[in-house]
Specification:
By secondary structure, the protein is an alpha+beta fold. It has a domain of about 200 residues. The protein is about 30% helix and about 25% strand. It is built from ten helices and 13 strands. The strands form five sheets. Strands 4, 5, 8 and 9 form a four-stranded antiparallel sheet that branches. α3 packs across α4, α3 packs parallel to α6 and α7 runs parallel beside α9. It is globular.
Amino acid sequence: MSNIQLTVDELNRLQPADILTYPAVREKFIQIWDTLWGEGKGEPAYERELNYFGHWLKDNAQSVAKATRFSIFTTFIDLAVCGLSVEPGVRALCYLQGRNVAVGKDAQGKTTYEPRLTLTISGYGELVMRARAGQIKYADNPVIVYEEDSFSFSDNDGRKSVKYTCNLPHNSRHIVACFMKITRTDGSVDYAVMFEEDWTRLSDYSAKQNRKWDDQSRRWVKGNPNELYSSQNGGIDPGFLMAKCIKHAFKTYPKVRIGKATQMETDTMDAPQEDFYSMEEAADAPQPEKPQDFCPQRDDSGGVTIDPGKSEDSDEPW
């Protein structure tokens, strides 16, 4: 298997859309896909994702121009690592997103940010990846339970069961629970259940996460929770709750392999993010202390090497 070389300088000389069609990038994508997901499947996957990814770059050209070329490259390659598609739709497996990422401080001590493109895996994509990894046989879509419905949940010696009857119409629009049925690889059944008190607690946590630093008063100001907690007539958004239920269902399961420029939607829904589409100035607030890293910092300035022959547990870059 060939060891394909590509440097950051090469990428920086390219326009965003040209990165996808650059011969070395094309070869890397196909080689990784063939290695991880089956010989001969990489080329059709490349042509498919080139279409979806390229259209997205074209539609967001002005904003994408701010992103680093290296982040565009890694995000595209991560599609091959995850074996997913950015095909748009109501049940999209993953989607592209721009973020401002803190990379250090300038000479005046102010935090500096770098605009990057990232790949975000939706709840539906996470279900696909977990089934493909052999963690589950399959999982039903989460079910929203309204005040008018009949619902009960029991757990007897580890055997979980749910009794549910949908009683229409749902005039109140008041959601009281959400549950998801998971069938394990051995045929046994598991249920993930969330109640109103669960997302009320998460809403309080979201508000704490979104607090902001006020330079004038020199103190933290209480933030607002994610608006999706109250966007449905004062109640939680159903789609948002379904994604939360998926995260809750797999919190004790092993992590699945994702790329270095990839994040799970279920892990970031309440995390404050800087969106480089708006390019709003971040407050110069004190940053939380990070654990000290005793390892030497990796230097990518001379280029990166992708070797799809490495195992998924390798510490080396692709």
